[in-house]
Each structure stands twice: as structure tokens, then as C-alpha cells.
Amino acid sequence: MAAAATMTWHEELATLVGDTGVRLPAAAGGAAPAPNSAAAVGGGWYGEEEEGKVEEGWAQQARGFAESTAEMLRELGLGVWDVAAQSLAGAEDSELARRLRRPAAAAGKRLSFMNEYLPEDRDPVRCWVVVAAVAFVALLVLGVGGGDDTPVEQPKKLYISPPNAKRFQLPDGRHLAYEEKGISADRARFSLVAPHSFLSSRLAGIPGISSSLLEEFGARLVTYDLPGFGESDPHPGRNLNSSALDMLHLADALGIVDKFWVVGYSGGGMHAWSALRYIPDRVAGAAMFAPMANPYDSKMTKDEKRKIWDRWSTKRKLMHILARRFPSLLRLFYHTSFLSGKQGQTESWLSLSMGKKDKTLLEAPMFNAFWEKDVAESVRQGDAQPFVEEAVLQVSDWGFSLSDIQMQKKEDQGVFEFIKSLFSQAEREWVGFLGPIHIWQGMDDRVVPPSATEFARRMVPGATVHKLLDEGHFSYFCFCDECHRQIFSTLFGTPQGPLNPALESSEVAPEPVEETSPAYDEEVAGQEQETSGVA
């Protein structure tokens, strides 16, 4: 007690805030200097340092003040935590707690999957509180740091042209918008139907394909807007079965009598797969380009899933998780990006990471002009619901597995047939879609990683995979004349040009020519002689 009574006010303050590194002068013998003394005024706390002592800089004083403040805030926080814990000790029995218990449990169950990303020895409640606090501080720092006076160029507004698409009415009353390129229906040797990918429209098709190439191969390319995109009517509750039927009705409406090819690029790949599954009798073959796979497919191995998820950016992973768990939250992201009415970057809007060739292509003026026009047409209706439906379709149950497209026929075998099959390598019969399936995959694709195509190849044994070294997601499919020629040569062989309806009809139905054999001529001659003798 005697020691405490002799403590100066400087020392008492030091015991409260801890050792800050600041030393306060004291009178000889440990007693505080008199308030009006020269030592107190001229040297020491307010004035100059006492003779023989080194003056502290402002940086050391600021550091000491910051450390003291942090220590006091920490003690204050611990005190508030203890008070809150004591105050809520019996709160679980209150009326408010009983009302909130069930919704809180439901929300916790839905969010429990996020605990997988936390260390096993950490309390999830405290961890997520810390994460939320850090995120809040980061947002504050970003907000403070965003006060730059440098003029920033405002993004341009999207220009949406007046409606000009061809449309036809489906059996359920909806209208589907479409576009045709290449050869007319009566002269087309091959017909291709191309459903577009996410954030695209009927204007995409095969970007940059030349009319001369379509003419050379006698090909007709038909593209259309998915429900709710472009000028097509929405279709609430749509699925991949209805998507395949839309393609079937489109082909019938446009007079495509023979089988047609389907072209599936990126997210449009799942619509192309659905055509092979649900209308295989109308499809001649499939041309796939980095087709999207369902990252939650039950038949995908853990290693295949890991390879796919590892190649995606953090934001893209978040988009898939939201589409799977909280699809209603996607509207917020869509309205702040491509539905904002302003132009933006492809990789930013779609949360993509790009390889070298893709970045070079996306910086080209030709691609930017195409991209702006295609996106503007895609968001014409300004409704987020079709985009949410498309995102949910990609990560939900498709209604079929890729393994259902080509299956080995199951046969009932007796004992003798079973024993015989053990010693013979007879091929079993395949059922499903048996036409050609070609898949082109860029090995530097970071949007649809090569592991997705490896999974598709494992599920569809009859598919032919073309691996493209150093190619990305866009570089081979978009604006590459030589690539397009290679694709058409692979699908259709040597170019034969369009059909000539007049020539084809003459070859199919030639004029009848009467041919007789020598024996028939002799028989007729004998009959004529007999007739003349009778006369």
C-alpha cells in the first residue's frame, strides 16, 4: 500500500496503457515535480527534454500511442464479449429465442457446407465472425482508397437495335426467334442447328464463319434464341427435354426433312447433348466445342471434379455455388453486371480466367464489336430470370446422364451363353445415338477445362476428341477461317458444293429406256411370222 501511495500519476497512467516506450520525467527521489516548478515547465513533459536524455521522434510517439490504443480496444472488446455472454446466458429460454430457433437452425443447415473450408480445430461461429469483420474492414479500406480524383472513362451504354428477327410459333403458343446463314433449304447438302451459350444469342452461331465456306460445303447454319433470350418468348419451368423439342419443332418449321447436325459450344453443349438423348432419330451428328459438363454430376470422380474446380477463378466458383444453393442471389450479380445496361469486359461479366491466345483475341476490335452486339441482343428483354434458369440448368440434374447417350444393349443370357462369353471377345451391341460425335478441346482452356472433356469421353465411348495444343476457349472456335475449314472438312469430308435441285431430280428419276434381250427379240420375231402366216 505504501508503494502504491507513493506512485506518481505518470506511473499510474503507465500501468493502465502498458509500456508504450514513452518515458515521463520525474523529480529526484521519485517524487513528482511541483506544478509550477521550472523542471515541469521548461523540461520534461511539456517542454524540452532534460539535459542528457535523447529526444523521441514523432514516429516513436505515434507508434506508442497506436499500440496503447489497440491494447485498450482489445481489453474493451473482451469485456464486451464477457458482458454479452453473461447477458445471453439464459436467453435461450426467452420468447424471442424460441421464435428464432427454427429459422436459425434452417439457415445454419443450408450454410453448413461452408464450414468445409474452415480448419477442423476452429469454432465455426468465431471463425465466421472474424471473416465478416475482416471483410467489413476491407470494404472500408477499398472505399477510402477509391477517392481518386483522376477522371475515369464512364462505360458506354449498350445499344439494342429494333426487333428484326424471324419468328415462328411453337405448339405451346410460344414464339421462337431464329436466323439462317449459308445455303437455302432446297439447295442445302448439310443442315446445322446451333443453340447458343450463356450470355449469347442467335447472332453468335459460329462467330466469324464466312458465307463462302458455307457455300463451298453446301451447308445451312440455323441459330435461334433460347427461351427468354433475344426475341424468343420465355418458358418458365423449362428443362433440357423441352430444349430438345424446341430444336425438333424448329427443324420441322424450316423444312429440314433429313437429319441435321447439332453444334454445341461451351454452355450450349448441354442443349446439344439433350438433342442426342431425346431426339436421336433426327440428328445426323454432333460437333462439340469445349462443351460444359455438370460439375456436380454424380458419375464424376473426385479427381475429375478437383481438376475442373481448380482451373476456375474464385468468382466463377462462387457463381456455381450460388446457382446450386442460392439461385435467387444471382439476380443481384446479373443486374450489377450485364443487365446494368452498360458495356463491360467478357472475363469480368462471366467470371472467366483467360489464356494467352484468348486474351489476344478478346482485345481485337473485331471480337469486341461482335461481343457488344451479341450481348445487347441477349439481354434485350432485361429480365434476369432466363439467365438464372440457364445457370441453374448447368448445375442441376439434367434428367439424363451422358452415359445414357450411348449404352451397350443388355441381353438375357442363359448359362451356355454366359459361359461362352467368358471365352470369347464378341462385341456387344450399342444402343442410343450411334452417329458421329466430335469434340474439340483447347488444352489451355480455363473456362471449360480439358478434364471436363475427359469426363465426357469416358461417359460417351464413341466420341472422337480433338485436342488442340495452346488453344483456349475462344481462340479456335471464333474468327479463325482456317479452323472453320478444318472443322467442316472433318465433319463433311471433301466439299461438294450445294445441291442442284434440277440435276438431282433428273438423276433420281431418269427417263425410262426399253431394253430387250436377244432371246426376247427372237421370240417376238417368231410370233410375228406366225401371225403373218395365219393372215
Outline of the structure:
This protein has about 525 residues and is an alpha/beta fold. About 45% of the residues lie in helices and about 10% in strands. It has a domain at about 165-410 and about 430-490: Alpha/Beta hydrolase fold, catalytic domain (Rossmann fold), CATH 3.40.50.
Structure report:
The protein has a domain at 166-411 and 428-492: 3-Layer(aba) Sandwich (Rossmann fold). It is 44% helix and 10% strand. It is built from 21 helices and ten strands. The protein has helices at 2-5, 9-17, 38-42, 58-87, 95-111, 124-145, 211-217, 240-253, 269-278, 302-310, 314-325, 330-335, 346-349, 356-362, 365-378, 385-395, 415-423, 450-459, 481-492, 501-508, 518-534, and strands at 166-169, 175-182, 190-195, 219-224, 260-265, 283-289, 406-408, 430-432, 437-442, 464-468. The strands form two sheets. Strands 1-2-4-3-5-6-9-10 form an eight-stranded mixed β-sheet. Helix 7 links the parallel strand 3 (190-195) and strand 4. Helix 8 packs across helix 9 (269-278) and helix 10 (302-310) packs antiparallel against helix 18. The longest helix has 30 residues, at 58-87.
Tell me what portion of residues adopts beta-strand conformation: 5-15%
**Low-confidence residue ranges:** 26-50, 508-535
Q: Mind telling me the C-alpha Rg?
A: 38 Å
How many beta strands in the DSSP annotation?
10
How would you classify the helix and strand content by structural class?
alpha/beta
**What average pLDDT do the residues reach?**
80
Which fold name is given in CATH as the topology of the domain at 166-411 and 428-492? Rossmann fold
What is the C-level CATH assignment of the domain at 166-411 and 428-492? Answer: Alpha Beta
Give the number of helices: 21
Overall 3D shape: elongated
Q: How far is the first residue's CA from the last residue's CA?
A: 165 Å
| Sheet with most strands | 8 strands, mixed
